[in-house]
Amino acid sequence: MIKFVTEIVVAATCLAFASYADAEDQYAKAQDTTVKAIDNEAPAAEKISLANGKKNWIIVDGVTRDDKTLTFAEVHIDGNGWLVMHPFEGGKPNGDKYVAASYVQSGNNNNVEIKVHKGVEAGDMFIVMLHRDVNQNKVLDFVFTSDTGVMDEAVFEGSTMVAHVVSAP
To answer: Total structural domains in the chain?
Structure first.
């Protein structure tokens, strides 16, 4: 049953990533911290939205950039995990790879820096989201366990994936 639920959540996550029409439209929607819910045939995950939750959040207002490093004023996670950045490619987010990750401890984390090794320019679009450190080894296990799922899973609160579309300053 757990594997089935995990596969549904992973499938819904992929549908959320795949549904973006273009980067500019999604950035505008992200400014309200809401993205139109996505209909999904899976009964356990009928609608997925990208936003902050009650126990997990990423403050994206006031993100700063110093060369290759973005700094987020506050990240809160219920359990240890990762702040992860997925790139946009061809105007759409690519959840199959990530360009940066920063470990965050359970609770409030202030001034979280995340270095984009390939570099980042003003206006570059990303999905920034939380992933759980499932095995608590402080290593981002972005290893696919199915066609769409990775070991250190995305953080959800109900049908809300704790994630945002951001544009680098």
So the answer is: 1
